[in-house]
Amino acid sequence: MQKVLAGLVRSVEIVIGIMLSLILIVAMAEVVSRYLLGHSLAWVTELSRFLFVWLSFLAAAVAFHYRMHFRVVMLLRAIPERLHPWIELLIDFISFAFALVVLVQSLPIIARTSVQRSPAMQIQMSHIYLIVPIFAGLIMVFLLLRWLEAARTGRMPVSGESKH
Known about the structure:
Layout: H1 2-37, H2 42-65, H3 70-78, H4 84-112, H5 125-129, H6 131-153
């Protein structure tokens, strides 16, 4: 189970790196085009914005996996250590419910935006908004794999144990 989880997280991290590299490449292309060729590329800002949105959601999912988001760190510092596993489990259940709501509620929005196109690149906006259910699905998968590992080992991991 740990190998599957580590492989999934690593894959998402690679995609994040590729997106960050693409943002850098297209920004440099815009600078070259503007200053050397004298005209701006209309699609660069739009592509950079879309890539950044996707990158942000994917990075948030990875941060969730590593339990490095604000709510876990601050809450766990405020309670006795013996209660940490129970609080982690409660947080996991609330997070799973939230991700499920986000997933279910995002699907109709994606369906409605399938007819809209972005101004410069003419990409279907539903492709851009698709990151929302992907994000929610990643959170749910990370939690399910964590719970399966906990069932296998007989204990819940606490903050910091998910790091590799």
